[in-house]
Design goal:
- The structure holds 2 protein chains of 2 kinds.
- In chain A, about 0% of the residues lie in helices and about 60% in strands.
- In chain A, the strands form 2 sheets. In chain A, strands 2, 4, 5, 6, 9, 10 and 11 form a 7-stranded mixed beta sheet that branches.
- The model of chain A has no long low-confidence stretch (mean pLDDT about 90).
- The radius of gyration of chain A is 13 Å and the shape is globular.
- Helices cover about 0% and strands about 50% of the residues of chain B.
- In chain B, the strands form 3 sheets. In chain B, strands 2, 5, 6, 10, 11 and 12 form a 6-stranded mixed beta sheet that branches. Chain B has a 4-stranded antiparallel beta sheet with strand order 3-9-8-7, with no helix packed on it. A two-stranded antiparallel ribbon of chain B has the order 1-4.
- In chain B, strand 10 and strand 11 form a beta hairpin.
- The relative contact order of chain B is 0.33.
- The chains are: A mainly beta, B mainly beta.
């Protein structure tokens, strides 16, 4: 099946620093990638949708200057949390659709971000 | 508004007993429906999906779900639960247009007692 990886799986950073999370489609071309955020014991909240080569579309309430999303190639999207604060601590999950079936999303394993 | 409702926040089932997790959706277009399972600290694993055709769909790990358009429901069932089924279960709905994001329910936590 289609495989999506995320790196790193866990990251701890100090408040005020920036951290980058990578999402890669390993065996298919991902024309669209999605970034979700999941709080403990909560559902997944869509943060943004990115199409390869275009600017990401952010959901209402998501700060685009804080959560920078880049989808520069058909296999890679990155989420950069800038000037991270403890309230940004969360589980971030990406998903991708593409040439393996545009109506089905393939999810990455998630990245646990802890901001101290 | 588009939404997914999972009425049960937490369910406990005895090992070997049957299971039904409820899911209701509100969606303005033809819905594509999914059930995912998530173990603590892990990503999402797709259990099954419904796009069209037979309204009873079979998934992995012995799960099945039935799409009932008249009730806007897509309930997940398993005839005999195993202790390893304890996890968080999410129902999700998406559209039939390419690149449509999924809308998730709040999830149901399944505990399995021995």
């Amino acid at each position: 099946g289609a495989v999506v990886s995320q790196h790193p799986s866990r990251v701890i950073c100090k408040s005020g620093t920036s951290v980058k999370i990578e999402c890669r489609s390993l065996d298919f071309q991902a024309t669209t990638m999605f970034w979700y955020r999941q709080f403990p014991k909560k559902s997944l909240m869509l943060m943004a949708t990115s199409n390869e080569g275009s600017k990401a579309t952010y959901e209402q309430g998501v700060e685009k200057d804080k959560f920078l999303i880049n989808h520069a190639s058909l296999t890679l999207s990155t989420l950069t949390v800038t000037s991270a604060h403890p309230e940004d601590s969360s589980f971030y999950i990406c998903s991708a659709t593409g040439d393996r079936g545009v109506y089905e999303q393939y999810f990455g394993p998630g990245t646990r971000l802890t901001v101290t | 508004a588009q939404s997914v409702t999972q009425p049960d926040i937490h369910i406990t089932v005895s090992e070997g007993a049957s299971l039904e997790l409820r899911c209701n959706y509100s969606y303005g277009a033809t819905p594509y429906l999914f059930w995912y399972v998530q173990s603590p600290g892990q990503g999402l694993q797709l259990l099954l999906k419904y796009f069209s055709g037979d309204t009873l769909v079979q998934g992995i790990k012995g799960f099945e779900a039935e799409f009932k358009r008249s009730q806007s429901s897509f309930n997940l069932r398993k005839p005999s639960v195993h202790w390893s089924d304890a996890a968080e279960y999410f129902c999700a709905v998406g559209g039939n247009q390419a690149g449509t994001a999924l809308i998730f329910g709040k999830g149901t936590t399944l505990s399995v007692s021995s």
